[in-house]
Write a structure and sequence with these properties.
The structure is a single chain. The chain has 4 helices and no strands. α1 crosses α4. The relative contact order is 0.18. The protein has a domain of 56 residues. The protein is rod-shaped, with a radius of gyration of 25 Å. The longest helix is centred in the N-terminal third of the chain and has 15 residues. It is mainly alpha-helical and 86 residues long.
Amino acid sequence: MTKDMMIKAVSEFFVEKGVEKMDLAEYKSYGSEVPVKDYILKRYFGSWNRILAVVNKRYPVSVAPVEVEKPKAAPKVEKVEKEDVK
């Protein structure tokens, strides 16, 4: 597997997971699901930051932002004043 193939696989993995970049601990947490093991990537590229930089340069990941619906406001309740009873 060449460096370019590794970076392309990592980029596609990021797209599959819906993230633009992830830290090393999160990448390792996927276990055998990752396309290329982290120690192999670090052997060829030197550091995780360099891997992320190469991914952004060669195969940039663009994930559409998730639209979150705003909660609807509760209807206003009018306060009823109590009459004084004597």
